[in-house]
Amino acid sequence: MRGNVIVGQSGGPTSVINSSLVGVYKTAKDRGAGKVYGMLHGIKGLLDRKYVDLSEHIKSDLDIDLLKRTPSSFLGSCRYKLPEIRDNTEIYDKIFDILEELEIEAFFYIGGNDSMDTIKKLSDYAILRSSDIKFMGVPKTIDNDLAMTDHTPGYGSAAKYIAAAMKEVIRDGLVYDYPTITIVEIMGRNAGWLTAASALAAGEDCEGVDMIFLPEVPFDIDKFMARVTDLAKKQSSIVIAVSEGVKVADGRYVFELKDHVEYVDAFGHKQLQGTAKFLADKIGSEFGIKTRAIELSTLQRCAAHMTSRVDITEAFQVGGAAVKAAFEGETGKVVVLDRISEDPYICTTSCQDVHKIANIEKKVPLEWITKDGTYVADELIHYIRPLIQAELSPMMVDGLPRHLRMRR
Amino acid sequence: MRGNVIVGQSGGPTSVINSSLVGVYKTAKDRGAGKVYGMLHGIKGLLDRKYVDLSEHIKSDLDIDLLKRTPSSFLGSCRYKLPEIRDNTEIYDKIFDILEELEIEAFFYIGGNDSMDTIKKLSDYAILRSSDIKFMGVPKTIDNDLAMTDHTPGYGSAAKYIAAAMKEVIRDGLVYDYPTITIVEIMGRNAGWLTAASALAAGEDCEGVDMIFLPEVPFDIDKFMARVTDLAKKQSSIVIAVSEGVKVADGRYVFELKDHVEYVDAFGHKQLQGTAKFLADKIGSEFGIKTRAIELSTLQRCAAHMTSRVDITEAFQVGGAAVKAAFEGETGKVVVLDRISEDPYICTTSCQDVHKIANIEKKVPLEWITKDGTYVADELIHYIRPLIQAELSPMMVDGLPRHLRMRR
Fold it and tell me: C-alpha angle with apex B37: B34 to B43, nearest 5 degrees?
C-alpha cells in the first residue's frame, strides 16, 4: 500500500491553480495513496503544523468540478523562501520530522519559479538526510516566466481574460466622437507575456490595441509621446497596453518617475502599480486629451469566470503527471509542458530537473517584439492563441459563479 | 405605410445598450417602418447629418444576436446638451429640418437622465413647431439612477459583473496569511446602486465584502479608520467596496482630500477617480498593512461577457415598447419598467412623461442603508437579486467573445 502525500500552493494565485490541486488529489487517490494532506499557506503553514486532510474538504464529484472553477489558492498561499541549507539545517529537519510523522511518501508544491526554489532545497536536503520522500514541482503562474516549459498553467486563462477585457475596453473607447486615450496596465514585472496577450484582441470584429509595451525593451518616454501624437492625428480612440514592469533606459520603473509606494515582499519584489496612471496623467496634462488609466489588477489572475479550457485541462494534467512521476520514483523534478505540434495544437508533459527551473525567469524573446518596441510579432500571437481556446463554463447559482470554499 | 424612424444612443455605454437598439430596430421593422436610421454619436452626429441606414449594418439574425452581445454603443455616443429652446430655436429648426427631410415618423433616444433632456426638449419643440414627429426615450444606464422606473436596463448586468468580480477578489484576498486590505472602487457619482451590488457576493460560498460605502451617506474618515482597525484584529483579509462618489461631510469628494485631476464634461460632471487609492494609501501608511486599490473602471460598464439575461431581455423590451408606443401616437414619454411581482419576479413596461424623468437622479433610499452607513440593508439585496439572474452566453470565436462592429 502507498503512503500519504501532501500538497501545497505557493506564490500568487491563478484562476486554475485549484485545477492542479484537483489533479494531484484525484490522481493520488486513484493511484492508491493513503491520505492526501493539504498544507495551509504552503510550506510556511506546514512549519506551524497547519494542514488538512483534503478528503474532508473535497467530498464529491461536484466538489471537484466546483474546485476547478474556484479562483485563488484553495489551501491558501505564502511567499516564503527557505533559508540556504548551509545556513539553517534545523528548519529542514523540522520539516522532514513533520513529513515523516505524517508518513509522507511524496510532497507536491504548486507554484512559480520562486516556489520551485522550495522543491529544489527540499529535494537537495532529502539527499543529505537520506530520506526517500519524493519532492515534485507543479508549475503555475499567470506570468508564464518559467524556464524549460512551453508555457505555464494559469497563463492561458489570464491571457484569455486580458484579451477579452481588451476587446471590451476597445469598444468602450470608441464610443465618443472626441479623442480619448486609454492606457491599460497589465501584470508582469520582468516578463511581458501577459501584456503581449492584449494583441489577441485584434481581429475581424475588433480594431485591436494600438501599442503594446513589454518590460523586455527599455521604454522611451519621448518616443512614446511622439507616437501618441501621431496616432491622435489619425484616430479618435487610442488604446495602449503597458506592462506594470516597463522601465526606462536607466533601469527605473516608469511609475518611479513620479511618486511610488514601496512594498517589498519576502523575495525582494517591489509592489508595482501606477505605470498607466503616470502615462495617462502625462498625456492628459501635456496634450489636453481625455485619458483613462485602467489597471487590470488582481482581476486578471482570479477571473475564474473566464478560463481557457485548454489551460484548466493542462493545469489538471501537470498535477496528475507530478503524482504519477513521484509514484514512479522521480524526485527533485518539475512537470513541464511540451508543445509537440502546432497545428493541431498538442501538448504533452515531461519532467525536468528543478535546478534548471527554480529562480529563473523566462522572458519574451526579443525577436517576438517588433523592432520599434511598440507591438508584438505574429510569432508571439501564434504562440499564445492555442492557449486561450475553449471554455469551462462557470456553474451559475442564483446569478453568480459558484466556488468551493474551505470551511475551517 | 409607415414612415421612417431614427434611433440614437447617448451618454455612457452599457453592456446591454445595443440590445435596446436591436429592440427598436426589430420592432420598427416588424411593425412596418420604412427605413430605420441610426444617428452616429447621438444628436450631435445628427446635427452634422451623420447617420446610417441600420439595415445596411444589421443584415441577419446572427448580426442581431451578436449585437445583443456587443458592449458599448454600436452607433457611438455623445454627451451633448441641447440649449434651452428660448435661447436658440435655430438648432431645433435644423434638427427638425433634417428629420423632415428623412421623413421621420418617430425618434428614439436610448440614454440616461441627461439624455432624456434631449427627448424632453425635442418633444416640447415639436409642439411649438406643430410637428407630429413622435419622440420617445428608451432608458439605459448602469447607474440605475433614473426616476419613475423600478430599475434601468444596464444596471442588472453591471451589478452581476460587480458581484462576480467581488467574489473573485474576495477569494484572491484570502490567499495569504498576513493581513491585506483590498479597497474596490465602483462607479456612481451620486447614487450608490452599483456599489451596493457588491453585497450580492456574500453567500454560502463567499465571505462577502466587509464594508460598503455609498455616496448617499457622508463619509467619515476617522470612523472608517477605526472600523478598519477593528476588522484587522479579527480577520486577515478585508475587502471594502467604495463608491467613486463618496463625499465627506463638507461636500468634498474623498479623492479630493489628496490630489485630483479635474475633467469636467458637457454636463458639468467631474471625472472621478482615486478614492480607493487614497484610502488604501492612508491605511497603508498609518497602519503599515499591505493594501491594494482596485478600480473596476470601465470594465464594469462594458463586460458583455457577463451579462444578466433578465437585463438584456428587458433592454430589448424597452426598445420594442418605445416603438409600439410611438406608433400608437405617444410622444414625450419614456418607457419605464414596473415590477408587478416580487416572487416570482415579473416586470412589465409602461410610458411616463419625460418631464418627470429628465435631469432627475434617483438615489438609494436611506432606509436601504444600514444605520452606521457601512453596509446595505437586506431590502436592497432583495431588490437587486432578481436583476442579475440567468445569462446570455457570449458567442465564443477562436477563444474570445465575438462582437458586431460597425464598418464605415
Answer: 140
List B348's β-bridge partners, or say none: B338
Rounded to the nearest angstrom, the minimum Cα separation between A82 and chain B is 17
DSSP state of A237: E
Q: Tell me which chain B residue has its CA closest to the CA of residue A261.
A: B281
Widest distance between CA atoms in chain B: 72
B165, A284: Cβ pair inside 8 Å? no
Amino acid making up residue B269: H
List of chain A residues whose C-beta atoms are within 8 Å of the C-beta of residue B284: 261, 263
Q: What is the DSSP string of A13-61?
A: --SSHHHHHHHHHHHHHHTT-S-EEEETTHHHHHHTT-EEEGGGT--SH
ipTM: 0.96
Question: Which tens digit of pLDDT belongs to each residue from A88-126?
Answer: 999 999 999 999 999 999 999 999 988 999 999 999 999
pTM score of the predicted model:
0.96
Residue listed under C-alpha cell 421612417: B4
Cα distances (angstroms) measured from residue A262 to each of A130, A255, A259: 43, 11, 10
**Inter-chain residue contact A305 with B168, CB threshold 8 Å:** yes
Nearest-CA distance A384 → chain B (Å)? 11
Q: Do B400 and A200 touch (CB under 8 A)?
A: yes
Q: How many CA atoms, within 13 angstroms, populate the side-chain half-sphere of residue B23?
A: 29
pLDDT of residue B260: 43
Q: What is the enclosing helix (H) or strand (E) of A245?
A: none
Is cis: bond before B344, omega within 30 of 0? yes
Interface of B with A in 322-361 (CB under 8 A): none
Instruction: Please state the φ and ψ torsions of residue A10, each to the nearest 5 degrees.
Output: -145, 155
pLDDT, tens digit, 9 for 90 and up, residues A5-27: 999 999 999 999 999 999 999 99
* Contact A13/B at CB under 8 A: yes
Span B297-334, pLDDT tens digits? 999 999 999 999 999 999 999 999 999 999 999 999 99
**Beta-strand (E) ranges in B157-312?**
180-186, 211-213, 237-243, 290-295
Q: Which residue has the higher pLDDT, B29 or A270?
A: B29
Query: Chain B contact for A175, CB < 8 A?
Result: yes
Query: If pLDDT is split at 50, 70 and 90, which confidence band does B407 have?
Result: confident
Q: What are B237's strand-pairing partners?
A: B180
Contact between B201 and A400 using a beta-carbon 8 Å cutoff: yes
Q: DSSP assignment, residue A146?
A: B
Question: Would the CB atoms of B403 and A205 count as touching at under 8 Å?
Answer: yes
